[in-house]
């Protein structure tokens, strides 16, 4: 089960105040990072979103790049801060830089009014170009963490997203398309299915990512033709001979 | 033939001074754009590079994002300024943001000393995260333009690159890999082969991008299986019946 924390109004105000005081010294201005964390378990594809302050709006887990930090390291740190996930495979897929992506500044200002803080800092008034990464994880292994601006961390079904701020909706759709295009190639890297798995488990993963039912025989033929799967010998343990074959990812040299 | 302009030292100094005075008002700080322009004609794949000042170093055609300009528009504008190419198909493929990419600041400072200008501005001392795009063009249609920092614009064989500054070498290699991966899909968009073309012309394009010889029969089978080519009826014009078939890209609905 996903743990859902709610943080207090006072802690929220304090967190924001502290952030705004120090942000310009710590972070690069004008560039942000957003991560689309897809969660898979059983046959559902979900996306991890954070509730912005105590508003009804959600955003992607994101943050800023420290002045003395590599871009990829920033993405990993941000993900770790929000999910406690480490050593995760993060793929950079897009950088979003339209002027219009900040049109929802109004909503953010509203959010701050609701919180009761009127920031002197212009940090959030800046235009940000956002470098976007995606990951695909087993959502049962994620331990979402709330802090500063975010009062709730929650998995949403990809087809039942809440209202999201900025252009994060567009970023989620772009990430999904890229995941679909990359899945064959990145499958082993996502490390999602455990040491061994059945063809049916693999098919359920594909169906959740492609958002449609696949024909079993075609799917099996396609997967075997990729040359990345290794079929294990059946263990004759006295149980049913109808037990499905187990597969694992072939070791690459 | 590619036109090569050399601009004078005085024009160069003046251009740099003017740029440094106005840059912070015009452009976003901390984010740059670099474009890898692949040129193809006959069977060579080339890359367009600019000579930095009057140094022996070259850089990719790049620039900065105006404060009121979309990221993609900035990339198109920069390309147009350097090559006079318009309506070109530019593909964003990577954002480079390691700290170490600016390690060659020393080289840039050296360059400025050689030019004789010691800039008061810290514009070039900033850390830049660079959003990278690539394009594939017919190099005979490009009209390279020199201005401000760049004293020469030149096509280089992909296998005979000069010394390039920053991490531009790495960016070129990443762009080539992405071009190879995307070629089947983007082929028609690059608009590179004229209205009609032979299978051999297409094969030469692929061989230049993949940097290896391909087997004619396999190549033909693969290309036809993509379903993007339309074979035209041979024109019986009294000449040799051995004239090769002509192809064009099928109209997509």
TrEMBL record, chains A, B:
Pfam families: NUDIX (PF00293), WHD_NrtR (PF21906)
Ranges for domain Nudix hydrolase: 28-180
Gene3D superfamilies per UniProt: Nucleoside Triphosphate Pyrophosphohydrolase, Winged helix-like DNA-binding domain superfamily/Winged helix DNA-binding domain
InterPro entries recorded: NUDIX_hydrolase-like_dom_sf (IPR015797), NUDIX_hydrolase_dom (IPR000086), WH-like_DNA-bd_sf (IPR036388), WH_DNA-bd_sf (IPR036390), WHD_NrtR (IPR054105)
Taxonomy, superkingdom: Bacteria
Protein known as: NUDIX domain-containing protein
Organism annotation: Limnovirga soli
Lineage: Bacteria, Pseudomonadati, Bacteroidota, Chitinophagia, Chitinophagales
């Amino acid at each position: 089960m996903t743990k859902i924390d709610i943080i207090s109004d006072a802690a929220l105000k304090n967190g924001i105040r502290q952030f705004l005081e120090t942000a310009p010294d710590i972070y690069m201005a004008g560039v942000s990072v957003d991560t689309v964390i897809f969660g898979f378990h059983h046959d559902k594809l979900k996306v991890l979103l954070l509730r912005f302050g105590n508003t009804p709006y959600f955003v992607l887990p994101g943050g800023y790049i420290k002045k003395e930090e590599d871009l990829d390291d920033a993405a990993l740190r941000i993900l770790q801060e929000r999910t406690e996930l480490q050593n995760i495979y993060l793929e950079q897929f897009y950088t979003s830089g339209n002027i219009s992506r900040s049109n929802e500044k109004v909503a953010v200002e509203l959010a701050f009014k609701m919180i009761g803080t009127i920031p002197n800092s212009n940090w959030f008034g800046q235009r940000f170009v956002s470098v976007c990464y995606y990951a695909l994880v087993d959502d049962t292994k994620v331990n979402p963490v709330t802090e500063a601006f975010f009062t709730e961390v929650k998995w949403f079904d990809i087809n039942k997203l809440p209202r999201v701020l900025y252009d994060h909706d567009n970023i989620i759709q772009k990430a999904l398309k890229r995941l679909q295009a990359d899945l064959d190639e990145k499958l082993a890297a996502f490390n999602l299915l455990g040491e061994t798995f059945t063809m049916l488990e693999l098919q359920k993963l594909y169906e959740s990512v492609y958002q449609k039912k696949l024909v079993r025989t075609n799917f099996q033929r396609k997967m075997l033709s990729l040359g990345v799967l290794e079929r294990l010998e059946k263990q004759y343990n006295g149980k049913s001979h109808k037990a499905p074959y187990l597969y694992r990812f072939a070791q690459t040299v």
